[in-house]
What does this fold into?
Amino acid sequence: MGAVRIRDIGIYHPANEVANDYYIERFRKQGTDVTGLLKALGRDKRYVIEDSGENSLTMSIEASNNVLRSSGLTGRDIDLIIFTSQTPEYLLPSNALKLHNALGGDLNTVCFDINANCAGMLVAVEQASRYMLGNPRIERALVVGADSISVHSPNEPVYHSNFADSAVAVILERASDTRGFIDSVYQTDTSVINNSLFPAQGLSNLYREEYTAKDAQIKFMPFDDSVCVDSAVDTVRILLERNGLAKEEIGSFLFSQFSIGNLKLVSERLGIDADKVPYIGDRYGYTATNSPFVALYEALKEGKIARGDYLVFWTVGAGWQNVSLLLQY
It folds into this structure.
């Protein structure tokens, strides 16, 4: 049945670029110093929605149109659309259906949304790949990951000053000249399951008189985010060992961009050459659901990845869940 490979990738982010100074001053007025936080996370600038007409869905439409144009395809060439976000613009209809409509999709296109928090796009690419391997009718899939965190977290320093807004669209297709998608490893530890909540009071309480719209904003309880490092190292090692690959054979490691500290810890523990682990969180901020794929986009643009390279992805989602993915580009 062949393999499933990444054909092309496109991104979209708002035009509004915001530097650290804005957040340092904003939270200083609220009595919180975020200078050390931003330095520890490795932030400098990020793109944030300024136009009230933009959201996770509009960004996704833009990113999807970008990748379709660069691939020479149209919406009718796509057999499967998966949308992933932890800040979807709609709960119904699904945002994948909204994308289908905006892109002029085919009558027989399969469409659905998933939410795996910050691991969302890795999970979506893995699920799309396995779906395609099991269903010969699906020739091409469009996987789109987008988050718009800033509007939902104005009073949470870690979220508001760290997260950024963007969308990434990836086209997967059948191929015979590559191994394509190879394997994945999940590890789930729900010990911090209630440390990030949105809506903070749950959907069922949105309309109760004692709550306001502000009560629905993201609620975050700080914890040591390095809790995921051991699991990240473990999942990557498992991935390589059971597929008979050495770290030296991997062209690039596309890791979570949440924290430059964690990225370095995982890299050092695995003994990976720093040149193989791109960090773009200083330019893009933390783009949550799609951050490893923004790193992929930039690495491709800079000519650091070529066809045939083995790639290892890793990210972690709130709750938390580590996900690692192995494929041949």
